[in-house]
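Reopening this ticket.

The earlier resolution said the output was attached, but the attachment link was broken on my side. Pasting everything inline this time so it's all in one place.
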Amino acid sequence: MRKFSLVLLGALVGAGSATLVSQTHLLSTTSAVAASSETYRQLSLFGDVFEKVRTDYVERPEEAKLIESAINGMLTSLDPHSSFMDAKNFRDMQIQTRGEFGGLGIEVTMEEGLVKVVAPIDETPAARAGILANDVITQIDGEAVQGLTLNQAVDKMRGPVNSSVKLTIQRKEKKEPLEVKLTRETIRIRPVRARTEGGDIGYLRITQFNEQTHEALRTAVDKIASEVGQDKLKGYVIDLRNNPGGLLDQAIMVSDAFLERGEIVSTRGRNAEETQRFNAKAGDITKGKPLVVLINGGSASASEIVAGALQDHKRATVLGTRSFGKGSVQTIIPLGGNGALRLTTARYYTPAGRSIQAKGIDPDQEVLQEVPDELKGKDETKGEAGLRGHLKNSDKDEKGGSSAYVPPDPTMYKQLKTAFDYLRSARKGAANTTKTGVPN
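Inline output:
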């Protein structure tokens, strides 16, 4: 089964799709042939420019770097999520897909030439140092980030375990930049953290969708059910706040874990015959217990697939704030020993046929988390709609991001408290209705 990269992760694509494209070109008209001729003329132009740079630039350039930069430029001009990975970065990505890697524990994106924090990963050096979503990393060990690709910046933040790195961070509410020194650790991502709340509610925090997520979820649900007892259990809260996404197949399996039947998600590529639909199989691991899903402006991609599937099937009530709005699928295409392409190959749609690209998932009930005075107005993500060069939504009804703030003090969790109150006060089956009033 193919795995798709939704934020950081991915897998293989077969040769069949390349064959399909080739056949399409064979059936093209003469105007398409003329366009192909023009394309080859442009490639010849590229060769001329490359040769001039190689021979006449003031300093002798590294030819391999020139080619890699040209490839990166081509891919990044398409959308914010397409990119080239050299062999090392491809290996690093495969390690991360398995859920273990060396580094600081920060999910980042590139915005206007700077590295922006999407979210720190729980229980990592970045989280303990107080790095926040929306922080902009301007320097790494005193070297400016401006001019680096995202992969280059990430590579500089990674390194041997127990070695240190200094980050210079610009935070909106601070005039002066912050300097943070962190010690690299082996980052072991626990994709699911679980506990019982008040002896009658199961809390499931899914931090990422890596290869262990579905199995970890099943283990957590079994443990909660055995501790609390099926009769006393009022339901589950699935916390997807600040979950940046991950593997598509894991998002499908997590959604399937709570559904008995029906479509989970469909992916639609450039050609109609590339459409794929993924359906649920019988078997709800919670045995039909009410569900509440929490999302916010940092919930992206695979998180949005799960929230959208459970919302459309009226299996869960979605609380929080509007999600990020990343509705595209990236396929990782290996290039032998030369790395891989991360290429946007499809959009995904919820069971009701909704594209959330640059729109996000709107919660059934908006619950705003209280934000400290010093962070007010700075806690919101721009969302996919705010990324330069993002894929446009066909209905043109694009929406920006929302608050991604989650307080470090659990006693201040208004969104989580609202979810618990909802499950305790809701009548049986209330989780199977949308647009339900939520007690505050």
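Reporter confirms the inline version is readable. The chain has three domains: 20-68, 100-188, 192-432. The first strand starts at residue 83 and ends at 85.
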